[in-house]
Amino acid sequence: MISLADTPLPTIPRSAPPELALPVGTTLDRFILREQNAFPFATGELSQLLRDIALASKIVNREINRAGLIDVTGASGTDNVQGEAQQKLDVIANIRFIRALRNGGEVCAIISEEDDDMILTGNANGKYVVAIDPLDGSSNIDVNVSIGTIFSIYRRISPVGSDATVADFLQGGRRQVAAGYVLYGSSTILIFTTGQGVNGFTLDHSLGEYILSHATMQQLRTGSIFSCNDGNMADYPDYVQTYLHTCRQRRLTSRYIGSLVADFHRNLIKGGIYLYPPTQKTPFGKLRLLYECFPMGFIAEQAGGQASDGQQAVLDVTPTELHQRSALYVGSPVLVNELLATR
Ligand code: AHM
Ligand code: MG
């Protein structure tokens, strides 16, 4: 029998800022409150917004888990703004997140992968805007493979009390105040950053609570995994093909799920590089800058990783359109730099 004396004490990572260091096992609510208290003038609105996202993700998680039972798999019969067929769960997740953010009151506008136009929430006094991919990795929904939610939060630049504008979303990746993702995998995990490092919270289903499980996450400097859609190889820029050839020569491991969240998360923990280069079909890259590349770039950099569009740090790309696409190379800094050195 294990006695309490045998149970190892919770670890506080040495790199966590002292005011934010909390032991593994802390609830998300307590963690958010502690982060908020570290900022003397914080009003609690961003904290509430993060709680709204967490709540919506629990509901989406429930829908995903029941998917096979309640006829929510398969195509919905509609297309999104990119002309891609929407899955029923894409649509359901979109509704859940928008409803949570609208009801919360802190958000004045949302852009979503599933909606052509900016959505005004009716909360003109909300100080924040949110860019979201409610359910990423659509092709995996029907086959029980990991999928995710990705979100990015900005403080609005338009006057509080007025309607939000597109410019609120086009501030640039370095102006994000928070970003994160939820991975619906073998467990459900919420990872986010507010610019104070990256922390991960695993959903304890019996409690219905997210619990701090991955404190102060650090991207391994290097690794042995490369992740890309090999079928597109012939379309990739020459330098990417050359780099991938060297990965094979070095006997690195190829792992590709086809869900950005899942591929990114694995490489964050195990060390590796994720690549989505331009292709003939998607000459500017497939991934969306505002709700895929920027949030993942912010998380990567906060964890000590690197994210590039092939020309510059992805966070330095100037956005001009809400649904703009970008190439993305992200992960362990040694591997990303090796790739960029082959240009
Ligand atoms: P989605 O937002 O429509 O799901 O598309 C984004 C996804 C990423 O999660 C994934 O990395 C990529 O598209 C997979 O694309 P492909 O099937 O072309 O490899
Ligand atoms: Mg997506």
Walk me through what this model shows.
With 343 residues, the chain is of the alpha+beta class. The chain has helices spanning 28-37, 45-65, 88-104, 238-249, 260-270, 289-302, 333-341, and strands at residues 75-79, 85-87, 107-112, 119-120, 128-136, 147-155, 178-184, 188-193, 198-204, 209-214, 225-227, 253-254, 272-276, 287-288, 306-308, 325-326, 328-331. It folds into 2 domains: 25-214, Fructose-1,6-Bisphosphatase, Chain A, domain 1; 225-341, D-Maltodextrin-Binding Protein, domain 2, CATH 3.40.190.80. The protein is globular and about 55 Å long.
In short:
With 343 residues, the protein is of the alpha+beta class. It has seven helices and 17 strands.
Mean pLDDT across residues? 91
CATH class of the largest domain: Alpha Beta
SSE order in H/E notation?
HHEEHEEEEEEEEEHEHEEHEEEH
What is the third-level CATH name, the topology of the largest domain?
Fructose-1,6-Bisphosphatase, Chain A, domain 1
What is the CATH architecture annotation of the largest domain?
A: 2-Layer Sandwich
N→C terminal distance: 58 Å
Number of helices: 7
Radius of gyration: 20 Å
**In what order do the strands lie side by side in the largest sheet?**
4-3-5-6-7-8-9-10
Shape: globular
How many domains? The number is: 2
List segments where confidence is low: pLDDT < 50 over at least 5 consecutive residues.
Answer: 1-15
- State the secondary-structure class: alpha+beta
CATH superfamily of the largest domain: Fructose-1,6-Bisphosphatase, subunit A, domain 1
Main sheet summary: 8 strands, mixed
- Helical fraction equals 25-40%
Q: What is the count of β-strands?
A: 17
